[in-house]
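Why predict the complex rather than its parts? Because the way molecules touch one another can change local conformation, and only a joint prediction can capture that. The input here totals 294 residues.
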Amino acid sequence: MEFDKSKSAGYLTNHLARLFASELQNAIRHLEIAPAQFMTMLELWREDGQTQKALVKKLDVEQATMANTLTRMERDGLIRRKPNPTDARSQQIWLTQKAKKLEGPATEAAGSINNIALADLSEADRAQFLDLMRRVIATLQPETRDA
Amino acid sequence: MEFDKSKSAGYLTNHLARLFASELQNAIRHLEIAPAQFMTMLELWREDGQTQKALVKKLDVEQATMANTLTRMERDGLIRRKPNPTDARSQQIWLTQKAKKLEGPATEAAGSINNIALADLSEADRAQFLDLMRRVIATLQPETRDA
DNA sequence: ATCATTAATATAGCATGCTATATATCATTG
DNA sequence: CAATGATATATAGCATGCTATATTAATGAT
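Output of the joint prediction:
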């Protein structure tokens, strides 16, 4: 009647996330960026000059977490925070040239981690895995439905 | 040609792990234990008096991480570290009465989180999800094959 | 037995995530 | 327009995880 961790989705997800994070960190270490910085840049490569609030929503992390990540990215010369001309409370987050140049190598590194991780799955299994994950996320996600 | 995070196993896993952790924390908050403490107790409920090294191996976290978690658990009155009679370098980790009493309520809370998370999946999908997760973990896991 | 190596834990320092709270600015309303 | 409430960001404090290094004790080789 014991709790079997190998049958616990939460336990397995935690374990897997740590393994992925470790691999990713290794794969992008030579670019001198960390996983959370990479995640943030994913959004900024797609659209530069977003506000902190927009990034918070897209990455589904707390505002305080994003503020700290951005502070480290600014320290590391990846972004600059510029005043928002239309609202003095907020700022626009702009990638530096250095950060822009990282898009190719960083996304390639991340892509190869995914390939390595899923290497033992068939094409159908991979699709199913992603689909199941998205469905469980949707179930747990705390209603990101408001405006 | 952009990196699509909704198709990245690593990204989705990270997101899902944060959602699970948040739910678990909520569900066990009233027991005054934190997720990592719960994970550690899972092993100690199964077998009390283990060494730190044994816990490190079973939970697949770094030794320093476990040392810190155990320090917090000791601070919170969940465990006691006692000298190992056969090896003065190591210690035996013993659950307190307080920690022993938490097994029922804590495993129930964790179980219901899993149920909630997987509520939208069929029985077959749930089994597949766990299986896929175990397979990807096995692929990424850095050879825990030594003695 | 002694010296070098290995092994078990601890500590320092950092990144990422969280909650709770503070601050500044905007928007609304009387 | 002044007061109030909402919004955007920052900061404090903590847990969990990591790497790197220190400390202490056991082992092994000479």
